[in-house]
Specification:
about 80 residues; alpha/beta; 3-stranded parallel beta sheet; globular
Amino acid sequence: MQKLEEQNKKDQELNEANNMLNTKIFDQIGIYVLGYTNPTAIELKSIMLKNGGLFYEYLTDKVTYIIASNLARSKAIML
């Protein structure tokens, strides 16, 4: 998990260094994408990182929002 956090931080620093950081609208917000979505998980990751947010590959306690097109009842109960 720490490796992913470091990777997210490096991606954000790279965006800031290249003046690609658009806003801080998603500051302190972390998302986890579950299954198929539109826009795709890759696009959501890019949007989040460019706007100050975080993207998690795994569901952790640091995730503030779960993005899903369809969420199975059993999965919802687990969350």
